[in-house]
Amino acid sequence: MTAKISIRHLYKIFGPREKEMVAKVKAGIDKPTLLEQHSHVLGLDDINVDIQAGQTTVIMGLSGSGKSTLIRHLNRLIDPTAGEIRVDGDDIMKLGKSELRRLRQKKMSMVFQKFALLPHRTVLQNAMMPLSVQGVAASEQDREARKWLARVGLDGFEDRYPAQLSGGMQQRVGIARALTANTDIMLMDEAFSALDPLIRTDMQNLLLELQAELHKTIVFITHDLDEALKLADHLVILKDGAVVQQGEPQQILLEPATPYIEDFVSDINRARVLRVGSVTSPLSASRFDGDIDAGSTLEKLIALSDGDTNHVYRVMRGDEVIGQLDMKDLVKALVPRVRSSGESGAPKG
Predict the structure, then answer these.
(1) Could you read off the pLDDT of 152-166 as tens digits, one per residue?
(2) DSSP assignment, residue 281?
(3) pTM of this structure
């Protein structure tokens, strides 16, 4: 399967001799040493990621891990020190100014953490901005902006100004603006991190609803693991500018590749996050205590079983039987893997 966005051997070093420093990084110098000895900052270290069409790829990590630096390379707000980025097979480093402008207008839209709304323009005018920049007819700008504002729950707020809206409503305008652009790709940089927890949950649910309907290629940046596990089809975890582990979120949770990841996922409510399908085994039982959908959470199955570990359930995907889940196996899945002794894990924060 050809990736919508393909990132290969991407490096970013901040400093006046960035090209010279790439060789040192490739030779094994780490981020703290590069800063201490050469006064250069290692932003990205040999990133290789494929972002598939129609999926949500979540890039996460702690502060300073390089996640926001990475997303800004995808539309060339930042140029790499070395490496390749292809969008629909085209090397975006070879694009001229006019081609790059078309990429940003026609193929990629962006939703920002701080909303980035124009305060002197109404909600409707803000949502119309992408089409206005493209020179689309005013009637079409109005029609499309109103359609997407209604879709994100802002019907009737078109004539308000950003200052008259709550934070959650302002971010809905930001999402409507991105959808009005009608791009294949949406870049979302910490889009919900400035919101209160309940509003943040509402926005996550809205994004899941929109994605189920529209199948956009979404690149979502977050430092919140719960949010990442909820939204991601493909999860990429960064540390010090490098990819520590990437893959299907459930699999990362069940099979962390390093002590850093083990520590990172250790405090997660696994029952709320893990899906039944991720811990299903082949059929072997002669009788079952009921059926459960593969997409249900383990928390739902625990409630269904009333916590009885003697139960065995048949696991379904639609009308298809895909296996079984013994409650004893469920209990094992709830226990995080113990970190290897003597190895350090992820910093807390």
Answers:
(1) 999 999 999 999 999
(2) B
(3) 0.87
